[in-house]
Amino acid sequence: MRIALFVTCLADTMFPQAAKATVRLLERLGHEVVFPTGQTCCGQMHINTGYQQEALPLVRRHVRTFDPYDVVVAPSGSCVGSVRHQHAMVARRAGDEGLASRAESVAERTYELSELLVDVLGVTDVGAYYPHRVTYHPTCHSLRMLRVGDRPLRLLREVRGLDLVELPAAEQCCGFGGTFAVKNADTSTAMLADKMRHVLATGADVCTAGDSSCLMHIGGGLARLRTGVRTVHLAEILAATEQSGIPGEPSELVVRS
């Protein structure tokens, strides 16, 4: 299958390892992954902050860029949620019904990674190996907007060597919420403290999720407390094999004279 990678801003600028892992995983499963170079921000940040008119050119560009592809995947429930639930709405409010219709068409072909693997490709065992104790945080957009359900957990349960432990109060928000964490810093920090307490209660070495934004928030808090618990994107775990090495662990330094 030919699959277009919707890389997302955060993966492109801060966490490219999540996007690279998505490509490695899908290619290992025998699929062709292409990167449409015309892609930019999907406009989620603008829409969520109330700048719908400013988001319209981004929606238009996203639709034009990804319309030629039958399947689109992103390592982010948040951005896929925006494509599915906001793009057509923004176009309609601007009076562009043609764009809204095309946006709906692209949205129907756009998947979060676990959705693509389980629902479209029909796999749960992707041949991964990750010998760590792991807990999974279901991010708000994947849980409430996309309703991915237990798909990520089904994938993680098939990873060889992985000890999956349940996260207490898993469905509670981590407190990130994009600009929410900036505009409501005290509330965000309190929510993060609750989430970190639950993560630490599991005794896990790694906290994983399908969104780099939430992992950035949780990981930042865990790092400041020097807990030793790492955050690793779901794609990185699923892409890991005995041959490829374990994401997040120091690599052996080879010095060549």
From TrEMBL:
<dbReference type="GO" id="GO:0005829">
    <property type="term" value="C:cytosol"/>
</dbReference>
<dbReference type="GO" id="GO:0016491">
    <property type="term" value="F:oxidoreductase activity"/>
</dbReference>
<feature type="domain" description="Cysteine-rich">
    <location>
        <begin position="134"/>
        <end position="218"/>
    </location>
</feature>
<dbReference type="InterPro" id="IPR004017">
    <property type="entry name" value="Cys_rich_dom"/>
</dbReference>
<dbReference type="Pfam" id="PF02754">
    <property type="entry name" value="CCG"/>
</dbReference>
<protein>
    <submittedName>
        <fullName>Fe-S oxidoreductase</fullName>
    </submittedName>
</protein>
<feature type="domain" description="Cysteine-rich">
    <location>
        <begin position="3"/>
        <end position="82"/>
    </location>
</feature>
